[in-house]
Write a structure and sequence with these properties.
alpha/beta; 61% helix; disordered N terminus
Length: 994
Amino acid sequence: MDGTPPVPQQRKHPATPAGATPATPAPGPPDAARFAVLGPVRAWRGGEPLASGSPQQRALLAALLLREGRTATAPELIDAIWGEDPPSQALAAVRTYASRLRKVLAPGTLVSESGGYAIRTPSAALDVGLARGFAADADKARTAGDRTRARTFLNHALDLWDGEPLAGVPGPYAETERTRLAEWRLSLLETRLDLDLEVGSHAEAVSELTALTAAHPLRERLRELLMLALYRSGRQAEALAVYADTRRLLSEELGVDPRPELAELQQRILRADAELARAAEPAPAAAPVTVRPAQLPATVPDFTGRAAFVSELSEILAAASTDGTVMAVSALAGIGGVGKTTLAVHVAHAARPHFPDGQLYVDLQGTDARAAEPEAVLGAFLRALGTADSAIPDTPGERAALYRSTLDGRRVLVLLDNAKDAAQVRPLLPGTAGCAALVTSRVRMAGLAGAHLVDLDVMSPEEALQLFTRIVGEERVAAERQAALDVVGACGFLPLAIRIAASRLAARRTWTVSVLAAKLADERRRLDELQAGDLAVKATFELGYGQLEPAQARAFRLLGLADGPDISLAAAAAVLDLAEHDAEDLLEALVDCSLLESAAPGRYRFHDLVRLYARACAERDEQPPSERGAAMSRLLDFYLATASGVYALERPGDRTVDHLAATRHAGVAFPDSATALDWLHREADCLLACARQSLGEEQIDRAVDLLLAAKDLAESGASSRAYERAAGAARDAARRLGNARAEGRARTTLTQTHLTAGRFDDADAEARVAMELGRAAQDPWTSANAPNERGIIAIYRKDHADGERYLRQAIDAFREDGNRPGEASALCNLSRIHLALDRTASAVELARQGIEIYDRLGLELRLANGRYALGLALAQGGLLTQALTEFTQALDIFHNNRHRLWEGVTHFRIAEVHLAGGEAARAAAHAEQAIALRGIGGIWRRGTVLQVLGRALVELGQPDRARACWQEALAIYEELGSAEAAEVRLLLAMSTPV
């Protein structure tokens, strides 16, 4: 038909995972026909739309397509199109429709047979067939335990629906099929949502389930899923309120009680069933088989955790002994004290039955000054295998050849512990199938051809606590569980450190766990505390450090000075004052020695205890001592220069970058804003750690300016708490140093974080002092930004006269500084003041002035703030459609720029508009999306969203859940001492059943 759209594009979902190829066949060659009934009935050939004719002709096409190749007789088609009241010329009409379709479709597609018609086309040519294939693939993936892949397939299936199935198609057959297909979609959606909850995406599912339960109020499975999602999101009261709403609705509408599954779920929620709060987990790995010891060292009786590694290595060793096709080599690498030997010995004991001809073991002393010589080890192995001393050759090559010959036909396991490098290991490997070798080393054995490489990391917190408990005793740990967690955390979850700490405590019955935790809390003494008998963490690290080349040792010392959780290659190069490729060579050498970890491509990190050791080495060995300060100064310069570049890309024309402290070292340049933002969010923790670490007299100005340049981290909400802590530390340091410029700027940034969290009194206290400091220091940045922030505070506190005065002052200061984006911000804020004073026309005009400035400068993100302000003005003026347009455009920009705070706030405003327009279901959906961005904007904003959500739920006939929302909001407001508490009390009073 004319005007048919091209083949619809599927909505974007995560790409199909590797190995998730659908069983559904491909649609065919580019010119193949394709059909859709999961929406309007449409047809395409090679992407071009085909005319499908009148509604009755589309009804014929749909009936034939849904028979999927089976023949439909003429009477059946007449009944499908017209039902019990066909026209007198129905048969002729059917033939006419069929003839027209045959002309449009490819030859052989629509065929006549046995007095009827059929469409012959591959299953994948019809969207229903594609959906069925995706659903089948999802079932298989779920059965196999791959929930992520199952969700992907279900999303692909659901994306094929394009509105109402068979839209606009008349006839009883279409009506029946429309109901069936809609029910099928709902069933698939329930399955997908069930999988969402299984993988832990409960918070994200609440919004969708809220909308679905509003659309299908009597569908109990959806209510059940919503209860579970709310409960797992920590919203127990709302989950129980959903049950109450459901029970009342079923009683009023159908006169029945909720089904048993729903009632049982309610009881489990009331009991706070621990299993209910836990998402599904994969089946545990098979436990290793208990084995008898042989020539191997004894395994530790309290071996703990490492189940995945034990299973992986055991399977490889078992396969090596039974397949008889290849000699297996597994090489374990990791930091000193991580438990490589303990794991290897444990696995070797477990594998002993697979190697009945013996197990060989040697400590190769790879960390000693003189490692074991392969020649001597071969002699010892040959003797252990029964070779007489007189038969052992003198040369290394001959000994290796005899060793391999002796092992031929045997099944022997060789454990080569503490290897220096691959060259030391190669002569000691068996050469025949049926044998296997386990190798441990601090160096990654990438040079061993065909070896299975295992990088051993520290224990999980659960494993660490379990090991500590086994050594110390259940009773002592149970009495002081938090202190025990502090101890294993201070040990960095390193098995050797945990064993030492636990052994010290076990030997001192008068100590409590808290005493040990207090001793380990002192970072400067921690390594000294972690020694017991001949075991010491520091000595273990010393062995690796002593083998480094001078340049490697310098890199190890200086990189340990930075507080961040990890460090990028570019930042490390700045610390070391080297080109990136030279720095990379040194870092990779440290990774190979297991003194540094490769967290991701181009990123590196220390274990916590190794970092402490590196710092101790820097204090002891770094000459001259000033080099430590110089290294950290270079890192601060790197972050400030790079963050300034990000700020400039994000805010062209903003004069803030012109007021930042100068740097001596360059940062990273970015081709576009998206790449720059990626860097900023990726480096957030490291950047803020550097700012907190750089609060001395010489660095304080640059540290505070780094926070200014990185303000996106506070505004986006993703790192707002860490940002606030850094800003607070900077304020205190600047005040202590008597630096008015730095203190004023730090207080202004703190004002912004308090505002974000809804702490308006704290925000105003900071902004008031900041204004005074800005004047005293004659700082144009603080003199403009501090009054702008006070104007925003006045908006929330309804101090409109003061707010207008502050914002007029800010506008003048921004204009004097030539800061047009700052001026636009203040104009948009002033718009909100006028809005509150019912000066709607001037509010709209001020917002438009701000938007005009943002638009002229090409500031997309700031333009979103302008559209948000304009949306508020339009909404108050009753222009809801126009307001919704502005809010929606702002929402897209905030989402694309990862500003989660403003994304959530805009969802909240959209919810208000929908509620005002009588669209309660849409209001609830947007309110839920605002709540789903949990932790963003502080609890005050959560309270405001819960108020709106409650109002929407009342309109949707869910008063019990609405009251649960309002009760949570009231608790928030009472905790904060907010005036909004009175309004919520009134809502609760009005909604209380009589």
